[in-house]
Specification:
single chain, 297 residues, alpha+beta, six-stranded mixed β-sheet, rod-shaped
């Protein structure tokens, strides 16, 4: 009987806590993006569709207070909510499990800043904007070429940087982003403004790993290979016709010596060009193998 009463009391306490948490206005969102297939160019399989653009910093209204990246130091940040503080406590959590600290990245901070502005301006709190843009779309506009990207969102009235990061760490998906060993870079943006008729903080973390710098495939060589194939195929058809005429006249009554010499010369030239083409194709294929191995690092 006492056990039943105890369970009822625990259940009531949990429900009250959930009600108070919801009433306080805290909200969190996270997104984990796997390795984006079209961001890793497997040559001849996936076409590079990444956008390369300039930094496009969106302006905010005069009532929006936004923190931008500053140098991160080992000292404990004093600001209530700050870029430095969020990076500091995020890296502190990574260091606890033996992971390398994330490095601040201007491009990722720019995409995070766009996300903060967009959510305040359009009054939504989701990873996908009303016009269908995701973290990948925002990052692409900054020119950051990535292998993997991710996003953490937070909305509410936060006490300080430490509590904000701790709240993310208490959420499995947010924690997975923060402790993802694949990420090397981070961008942060925070702002306070009116959201649904209440003054709220919005914080955005953008995580990423840049695509390695690889020697691009020589498209000129590929074009030359394709052109040479067409020429040799045409010559092969011509040689087959000539061979048919020669074979149809084994006694060589109608085929003179000049015709035979011309045929043999054409055959020798064809074979020489074919062997060179094979060498070119082998070398070209090696560059493809090296490129694919590079982008998968």
């Amino acid at each position: 009987m006492f056990k039943i009463i105890r369970y009822i009391i625990i259940f009531i306490i949990i429900m009250v806590c959930l009600f108070l948490l919801k009433k306080s206005g805290f909200s969190f969102e996270s997104i984990i993006s796997g390795e984006k297939k079209d961001s890793i160019d497997i040559y001849k399989q996936i076409e590079d569709k990444d956008l390369v653009g300039v930094l496009n910093s969106t302006s905010s209204s005069s009532t929006t207070v936004k923190s931008y990246i500053k140098e991160v130091t080992n000292e404990k940040p004093k600001a209530k909510i700050s870029i430095d503080g969020i990076i500091y406590y995020t890296n502190l959590e990574r260091e606890k499990v033996g992971l390398k600290p994330l490095v601040k990245n201007v491009s990722l901070s720019n995409s995070a800043s766009q996300k903060v502005d967009d959510m305040f301006n359009k009054q939504y709190f989701e990873h996908v904007s009303p016009d269908g843009k995701t973290v990948a779309d925002l990052v692409n506009t900054t020119g950051y070429k990535y292998q993997i990207v991710g996003e953490n969102l937070a909305l509410g009235i936060f006490y300080n940087d430490k509590d904000l990061v701790l709240a993310w760490m208490n959420s499995p998906l947010h924690k997975e982003n923060i402790l993802n060993p694949k990420y090397t870079d981070i961008g942060i943006a925070v702002g306070i403004n009116e959201y649904k008729n209440q003054k709220q903080w919005i914080a955005v973390q953008h995580f990423g790993k840049p695509r390695p710098v690889c020697t691009e495939i020589d498209t000129v060589t590929q074009d030359n290979i394709d052109k040479e194939k067409v020429i040799l195929e045409s010559e092969e058809r011509e040689l087959q016709k000539m061979a048919g005429i020669i074979e149809s006249d084994p006694s060589q009554n109608t085929v003179d010596r000049a015709y035979l010499n011309n045929y043999n010369t054409m055959v020798n030239n064809y074979n020489d060009r074919l062997n060179k083409l094979r060498e070119t194709i082998n070398a070209f294929n090696k560059t493809i193998v090296d490129y694919n191995a590079c982008v998968k690092k």
